[in-house]
Amino acid sequence: MMNQKKPHIAIIVALDEQNGIGRRGELLCHLPADLKHFKELTTGHTIIMGRKTYQSLPKGALPNRTNIVITSDKEDNYPGCVVVRSVDEALARCKNEDTVFIIGGGQLYRSTLDLAEILYLTRIHHTFDDADTFFPEIDLNKWELIQQQTYQTDEKHQYNYSFHTCIKK
């Protein structure tokens, strides 16, 4: 019997200075470069999300990716997605993947942060006072920043932001 490899688990998230990630079921702001970065990293891979994250997607399942939705909702109306009931079940579906991406939301991030091996963080250099969904606190003793790119506001980006790549120590 061949050993099946385990995928690398990556978390990808955009968060503000207070770890806010959303408000009223939507992203905190529109950063086209972040959306492009997200697409470049996740295309061709499996993405795992919770029900609320799926419902926030404007056009449903994201193209050119295997979309897995974790939900206890009995209504399985998630076109273009694989529906599972737990993180373990989601990861069991990804045994032959190189990397899978956890894309939100807050509850899923909290339950998978300890499983993750890499973090792709978009740090928005602003605090959104009305954020109502948050990323868990990142223990800097457990993570090493290996790459950082910082960008200034421009005609398409209202806030300064940085892309950070962190690996588990």
From TrEMBL:
GO biological process terms, semicolon-separated: dihydrofolate metabolic process; folic acid metabolic process; one-carbon metabolic process; tetrahydrofolate biosynthetic process
Catalytic activity, EC: 1.5.1.3
Domain DHFR: 8-168
The protein's annotated pathway: Cofactor biosynthesis; tetrahydrofolate biosynthesis; 5,6,7,8-tetrahydrofolate from 7,8-dihydrofolate: step 1/1
GO molecular function: dihydrofolate reductase activity; NADP+ binding
Enzyme class per UniProt: oxidoreductase
Keywords: NADP, One-carbon metabolism, Oxidoreductase
GO CC, one annotated term: cytosol
Endpoints of the signal sequence: none
Reactions listed under catalytic activity: (6S)-5,6,7,8-tetrahydrofolate + NADP(+) = 7,8-dihydrofolate + NADPH + H(+)
Family: Belongs to the dihydrofolate reductase family.
Listed name of the protein: Dihydrofolate reductase
